[in-house]
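This part of the workshop introduces the protein records we will be handling. Getting from the letters to the tokens is the skill we practise here. An example says more than a description, so a record of this kind follows:
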Amino acid sequence: MLNTLSGRFLMLTVAFVMLAEVFIFVPSIARFREDFLMARLERAQIASLAVLASPDMIDEAVEAELLLNAGVYNVILRRDEMSQLVLSSPVPKEVRAVYDLRDASAFTLIRDAMECLLTKEEWVIRVIGTPLRGAGEQIEVTMNSGPLRTAMIEYGLNILVLSAVISGITASLLFFAVQRLLVGPIRGVVGAMQNYASAPEDARRIITPTSRVKELREAEEALYGMETELTSALRQKDRLAQVGGAVAKISHDLRNILTSAQLFADRIEGSDDPLVARVAPKMVNSIGRAVNLCESTLAFGKAEEPAPRLSQVALCELVDDVLDGERLAVRDGKVQLLADVPNGLTLRADVEQIHRVLSNLTRNARQAIEASGKEGSVTISAGEDAASWMITVTDTGPGLPPKARENLFTPFQGGVRKGGSGLGLAIAAELVRGHGGRLDLLQSDEAGTRFQITLPKGLDAI
């Protein structure tokens, strides 16, 4: 029960009511003590006035009875600026404390009450007060503190029982009120969330705001907006998945067709016809780009890239292999492909996946330089520190346009070249993340573009 909202609210209500009763009890018990002592002074005053009215009729037995009824040992009455011991009897103990009730402050009354309540030993105390109805200037009595403490304990127990009853009734009423006004609606919202979670594509399960409580209504409206957007997103995701599946199938068959066309184009390129010789290279390049696009689409269309198979990779050999493949595609010798990798540098990675990453980055850089019509270079360099390996691909091309930088690693949106799909960088970033690393764009301006691959040496991802 304590783990429920209503249960905790019930316990807090009881605790706060009892705490409030404590704050009420302290001044209340001080007031009770003051009234008790004032009553003793009043009874002692009445007894003393009886003695003064007929002194000859009061013998020792009557005097003892008057003191017993007043609950005091002796009475001193001050009248006409003279003090007189009106009633007296033997005092069993030494007077331990004197309490003056004339103009006593609230703090003094509370302090004296707590002292009396917490002291188990019975004291003989002297109490000083002002007589009622102008019967004198001052009255002073000596009495035992035991009856006073007993009366205070009884009064405190009565207050405790009353406080417990009030706390129980108040807590019960608040418990049922919270159950009806707060916990019930919250459970309704939770139930609506669970119902929606079982089939989020079903728009009929979206919550309908009905609460009349402002805060709960706001929560229901926020949940309604979130569920509506999520359902729309899921439907859009399903449509994109269907489109992606269709595109992947088409790309697969189209790639096979284009590969055959590429073989035919290679033979046509050797024709003696000047027109054919001039057009054939462009056709070959176009078919090559189409084949690459189909392969990229198929690669990205998979549910996920396979986990990397880590092994020790000689980076210098891997980079040379990537650059040799790209050199075959260099036109007119305007692009230089360079390597700056220390001999003997090895890293722990999936050789095939890192080859794909470097090929994508190098190909993009080469094509960007060729598209500019100027000469340039692409350099793959590498280094390491205690925590990671760093591989940098730098080119002297024209830099990335602003739109490409905004959606750099977003599929179909981060394309740099006209007609490009933007899948190369998206695939490269995904493969690097699979190694626990990071692919960053460090520079892209008129001086060129620089990407950096950072791979961790330990188990923690970067």
